[in-house]
């Protein structure tokens, strides 16, 4: 850059000299032009009347270029010095370490726990404790990290709609100003992007074939040409008929935040896709399978659980996350198989109906007729009501923590 400035200055000096020479030659030509002799004499008379200027010795081209180059180099060095030594307020730039602080958990508590676990490398219990502590007051996730490290952690956790700040060790903070508001994506694109089982997809419309129409559950057919208001009413009636008392939080959530419902064919199976925009502006896509004709688990399972699968949906969970909800009946596993611990021999009849896709489950123990809340790496929690846990966890997944 300095060399370019010097070269430009030298060209400028040379051009000035050439322009001066051009003017002199033009004047000489003007004098010898016989047609304009009279005008030349007038100019000479005016020149005689004008006060004479003292002649000055012109600087050489080399000297002028050297002087200009020196001034330019000094200016560039001064600017660079100012840029690296002070910030916009005229103070020395902070170059120390930071602490990462979780100030707000937001609506996606379970997802935030997973994000903390992955970003920090903590165990599930430690991650869960930190997130739950942040629900009461800001919780420090990391200390003595660089700005680059802290920013990476912050972005990973804020992707789940939590609020994270970086605090300088001297107490200043830098909070992300990025909005959690997201643009709604094309539904078919979402379905294809997260089509983990590589199924043939088709969104049903009133132009579906007669064979397809016949395969759609009767209680869903009214959704094909319904307005959004009518769709919300149809969905609400379906849920209240099946689990009005058991999942009141979820029903209320859907009534408030449901933006669309579409019938989708996955190979030869049909499902409803719920398009939900939660109160934090995040778009969610939940899938509810067609009700099963018969409940295939031949064990002592409560009628309310059977009724969900036979009257409402064969599972209801986050399509993109492949979890955070009631799993499909054919994918319901045995808790004993997941723990592999002989200490929990009674888990051989404990069915994992709710899966958060993080190794945690709400299971029903048919042998003891009780609900088991299982957090990976922790002692099992007994004594909870099955639907209280399922409703609360589903509501958290939908972005509305209580």
Q: What is the total tally of β strands?
A: 15
- Structural class by helix and strand composition: alpha+beta
Strand content: 15-25%
- Number of domain units: 2
Main beta-sheet annotation: 11 strands, antiparallel
Distance between the termini: 61 Å
Contiguous helical run count:
13
User: How are helices and strands ordered from N to C?
Assistant: HHHEHHEHEEHEHHHEEEHEEEHEEEEH
Task: Provide the residue-averaged pLDDT.
Answer: 79
Broad shape: globular
Residue share in helix: 40-55%
Report the C-alpha radius of gyration, rounded: 38 Å
Which residues form runs of ≥5 with pLDDT under 50?
1-50, 79-91, 175-181
Structure description:
This protein has helices at residues 2-32, 37-49, 61-85, 109-120, 124-134, 147-158, 187-193, 210-215, 228-243, 248-257, 303-312, 335-339, 386-397; strands at 98-104, 139-145, 163-168, 173-175, 201-203, 258-266, 269-277, 283-289, 316-318, 323-326, 333-334, 350-355, 361-365, 370-374, 381-382. It is an alpha+beta fold. The chain folds into two domains: 98-175, Ribosomal Protein L30, Chain: A, CATH 3.30.1390; 187-397, no CATH class. The strands form two sheets. Strands 5, 6, 7, 8, 9, 10, 11, 12, 13, 14 and 15 form an eleven-stranded antiparallel sheet that branches. Strand 14 (370-374) and strand 15 (381-382) form a beta hairpin. Helix 1 packs antiparallel against helix 3, helix 4 packs across helix 5 (124-134) and helix 9 (228-243) runs antiparallel to helix 11 (303-312). The protein is globular and about 85 Å long.
């Amino acid at each position: 850059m300095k060399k370019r400035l010097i070269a430009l200055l030298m060209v400028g000096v040379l051009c000035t000299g050439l322009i001066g020479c051009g003017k002199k030659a033009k004047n000489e030509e003007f004098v010898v032009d016989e047609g304009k002799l009279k005008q030349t004499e007038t100019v000479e008379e005016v020149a005689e009347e004008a006060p004479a200027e003292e002649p000055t010795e012109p600087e050489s081209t080399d000297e002028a270029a050297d002087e200009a180059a020196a001034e330019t180099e000094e200016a560039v060095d001064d600017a660079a010095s100012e840029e690296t030594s002070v910030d916009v307020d005229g103070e020395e730039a902070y170059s120390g370490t930071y602490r990462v602080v979780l100030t707000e958990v937001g609506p996606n508590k379970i997802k935030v726990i997973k994000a903390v676990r992955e970003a920090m490398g903590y165990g599930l219990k430690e991650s869960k404790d930190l997130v739950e502590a942040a629900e009461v007051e800001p919780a420090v996730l990391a200390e003595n990290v660089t700005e680059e490290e802290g920013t990476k952690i912050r972005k990973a956790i804020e992707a789940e709609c939590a609020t994270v700040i970086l605090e300088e060790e001297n107490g200043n903070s830098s909070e992300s100003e990025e909005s959690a508001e997201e643009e709604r994506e094309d539904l078919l694109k979402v379905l294809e992007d997260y089509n983990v089982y590589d199924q043939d997809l088709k969104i049903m419309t009133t132009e579906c074939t007669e064979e397809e129409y016949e395969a759609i559950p009767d209680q869903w057919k009214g959704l094909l040409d319904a307005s959004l208001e009518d769709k919300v009413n149809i969905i609400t009636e379906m849920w209240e008929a099946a689990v009005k008392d058991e999942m009141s939080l979820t029903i209320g959530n859907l009534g408030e935040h449901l933006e669309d419902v579409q019938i989708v064919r996955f190979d030869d199976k049909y499902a409803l896709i719920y398009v939900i925009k939660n109160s934090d502006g995040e778009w969610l896509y939940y899938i509810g399978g067609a009700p099963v004709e018969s409940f295939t688990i031949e064990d002592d399972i409560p009628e309310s659980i059977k009724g969900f699968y036979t009257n409402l949906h064969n599972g209801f969970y986050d399509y993109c996350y492949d979890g955070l909800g009631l799993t499909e009946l054919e994918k319901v596993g045995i808790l004993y198989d997941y723990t592999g611990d002989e200490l929990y021999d009674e888990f051989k009849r404990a069915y994992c109906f709710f899966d958060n896709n993080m190794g945690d489950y709400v299971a029903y123990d048919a042998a003891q007729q009780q609900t088991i809340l299982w957090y990976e790496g922790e002692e099992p929690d007994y004594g909870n009501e099955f639907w209280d846990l399922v409703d609360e966890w589903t509501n958290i997944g939908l972005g509305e923590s209580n």
